[in-house]
Design a protein that fits this description.
By secondary structure, the chain is mainly alpha-helical. The protein has six helices and no strands. Helix 3 packs across helix 4, helix 3 runs parallel beside helix 5 and helix 3 packs antiparallel against helix 6.
Length: 152
Amino acid sequence: PMAPERVTPFQGNLEAYHRAFGKFINQSSRLSPAQADQPGICGVWSARQVAAHLAGWEHEAARSLTAWLAQLAPMQDYDIDGFNANSVAMRSAWSWEEVLADLRAGHLALQHAVERLMVQHPSDYSIFTTWLGIMAEEFETHAAQLAEIPQS
């Protein structure tokens, strides 16, 4: 009999990340624009602001990973609160639908960067394993917050 295939930490985090992203999108899709703008979903933030901060991270992760793969720049450390505030401010005039479209576009860009990582570095994904785990937790947490918003 063949031994069961082992799931690496990278594969586990990648699967958790995609699953959690899907949960967030599913919860987002049931909200009206008015519900999406109600403050207090995550601290003082609305669902639209939460989605905006997540979109910022999706795009930044794709950009950062792509630059690292091209050996243009090392992976960097971030001022997380400053980055979040900037992502929300940058998208503050956007509609709920525009923010969600941007979040999906960032997710797709990151998916392409991860595919390049898997081709270019088939034996070492450690540079990105932790990030995927953190984002999976972020999407899970925020999906659960959105799930608490009553259907209108």
